[in-house]
Amino acid sequence: MSSNRQAYYFDLKRLKRKELYYFLAGFVDGEGSFNVSVVPHPSTKFRLIVNPKFQVYQHEKHPEILEILLEVFQTGSIHKKSGSNVLVYEIASRKTLQEKIIPFFRSYPLATKREALNGLARILELMNCGAHKTRNGILDIIEIAHRMNQQGKGQKWSKGQLIQHMDLTESSETTRRTPKKGMI
Q1: Is residue 40 part of a domain?
Q2: Domain-located, residue 182
Q3: Do residues 92 and 75 touch, judged by C-beta distance below 8 A?
Q4: Which end of the chain is less congested by CB atoms within 10 angstroms, N or C?
Q5: How many distinct structural domains can be found in the chain?
Q6: CATH number, domain with residue 127
């Protein structure tokens, strides 16, 4: 770490806790994301899996803020984004998202990503109630995720494709479970 970067890192760490936390909230507002992907998965009931995540991005030349986030939350990981010079701090544990991330950003509010945080919190609540294991619940989750992720921008699977995938899965399950003539 260069001496300038080292000084910056230590200056940040010397901030009072409350000041540091507000700084981190502002940084996350600009460089972070609260997202939920819903993707096909062969072993689940509706062949869809829900993946909630909190991510913060930073150029690989400046990992200090990501390291501070790792220290503050005492969890998560930092990895290089595939094919780029960007580092990503990531938390994907539902329990950690619910117990650490949501409360932190409720205490140190976001300006621009508040709706995405609320969407993540709602999806986590639904998942805790088992809604992701029911047709209506997964439809609610798809809708919320689609709204919070810029109307599906950057998503590999559109809302319609996910619903169609789910419907095809259900109709093939019905076909498999329906007894053939003469089998009754």
Answers
A1: yes
A2: no
A3: no
A4: C
A5: 1
A6: 3.10.28.10
Residue 89, SS3?
Answer: strand
Total-model pTM? 0.79
Q: Across the strands, what pairs with 89?
A: 56, 78
Task: Select from 64, 48, 17, 7 the least CA-distant residue to 140.
Answer: 48
**Other CB atoms within 10 Å distance of the CB of residue 30:** 12
- How remote is the C-alpha of 184 from its chain's centroid? 47
Tens-digit pLDDT profile for residues 110-144: 999 999 999 999 999 999 998 888 888 988 998 99
Residue 152 has which token pair? 């599906």
- 86 vs 81: CA distance, rounded Å: 6
E strands, the chain, where? Answer: 32-40, 48-59, 77-80, 86-91
Which amino acid belongs to residue 183? M
Residue 181 lies in a domain: no
Whose tokens are 């259900």? That residue is 170
Long-range contacts of 129-136 (CB under 8 A, 24+ apart): 132/50, 133/45, 135/46, 135/166, 135/170
Range of the domain at 142: 3-172
DSSP H or E segment with residue 179 = none
In this structure, of 15-24, 70-79, 147-156, 171-180, the range with the lowest mean pLDDT score is 171-180
> Does 46 fall in a domain?
yes
Q: Indicate the helix (H) or strand (E) that contains 132.
A: none
